[in-house]
Amino acid sequence: MGGRWNFLEWLSPDVSAAVLSRLDDPADLARVSAVSWSWRMFVVANGFGKRLCLRNYPDVPSFSCIFEVSTANKTAQVGCSAAAEWESLEREHRVYLYLSHCLGSSKCERNCISQAICASSTDNYPDESIANTLDPSEMIDRRPSYWSSSGHRDPSMSESLTYKLVANLCIVDEIKIKPFRAYFQYGHPIYSAKAVRFQMGCSISGSGISSSPDQQSAIVEQYHWRYTSPEFPMAQENVLQSFKLPKPTICLGGVLQIELLGGVQKQAMDDLYYICVCHVQVLGRPLSPVLDLNVHESTDSLAVTYFPDARSNTLPVRVTEDDARDSSSSSWQSLLQDSALVRRNQVILSMLLGPIQFSDDDGDVDDLEEEPAVL
Q: Of 61, 179, 254, 326, which shows the fewest CB atoms inside 10 Å?
């Protein structure tokens, strides 16, 4: 084939943008941006990576600023505003495409709780502390292990448990809660809640760790919640109950609160309603060390720091044909198919549109191997 044809030049920019905006898979957008330098410029300049991410995951914020920390040597173009703007667009493209990939991944099986912060109330502190919910065992040192609220006469009361996650940016997919069964009381009552709801956000005060666990004061003033889930009914069963979010959600700030809405079980000795929990898990995926959120006292804007060197521990930063052959992921193998795929597409276009005049401008096929694939 003596030349190659670039449909982005054949079509108008508006029509090309309409075509690429139909893509809903970040892997497809990565393949498009890896075809040639002109295609990548078009994708990055139009912010298709960010658009795709925000369209598929509306809870993802529009970050006010994206910083990049890398050991790679880069030639700084002092005084060139166009170069600085392009670097900013490139960072935005890589970060949002990476977020789309992570949110679409099914690998959200890690318990992301780092430590317990506080509970809205505790019946017998520290024996019935929120810290007990971090251990999956119902018995520790021959004693029952659980958190208990204080007693209430009103069954519509609500309680909350607040936890610090392992990173400031975590994808949360599912929360698991096990209500406590009081085997030492007559009838072995189970002190579950009627329903649960989850909030995620950041600490306004800074660390988000209470100096006095289980003494939660003015929680609305301490935390800024950016996500609130629907309510989920809880069964009165002594099992690890699963509450899956409608979509994987990014916890912005690394703080998650479980709201326990309404009591169902009275304690016979005092005729008060209690809620008791044995164990809590927050299943998800930390985005560190690749991404970190800069949490400030002002919650009006969010800045994220990107560490591309850490990508080697998660996904390939630069993928070659050898990498694709060695990879067990079919998506990475298909990302770097040889020029036969491009030629096959060109044949299909020729059949649909008639004879096409190809140009040598971009070297699309030759650049496919050299262009870094970003996911």
A: 326
Give the strand pairing for 223-228 and 193-203: antiparallel
CB-facing half-sphere around the CA of 212: CA atoms within 13 A: 7
Write down the mean pLDDT value for the chain.
79
Over the stretch 278-299, which tens digit does the pLDDT of each residue have? 999 999 999 999 999 986 655 5
Question: What is the SS3 string spanning 363-375?
Answer: CHHHHHCCCCCCC
Fill in the DSSP letter of residue 47. T
Q: Which residues contact 114 (CB under 8 A, 6 or more apart)?
A: 163, 164, 165, 166, 254
Phi and psi at 60, nearest 5°, equal -70, 130
pLDDT band at 310 (very low <50, low <70, confident <90, very high): confident
For residue 212, what are the contacts with CB-CB under 8 A and spacing of at least 6?
Answer: 118
Q: What is the DSSP string of 109-139?
A: -EE-EEEEEEES--SSTTTT-GGGGGS--SE
Rounded CA-CA distance 236/181 in Å is: 9
What is the phi-psi region of residue 111: left when phi exceeds 0, alpha when psi lies from -120 to 50, beta otherwise? beta
Rg for the chain, CA atoms, rounded: 26
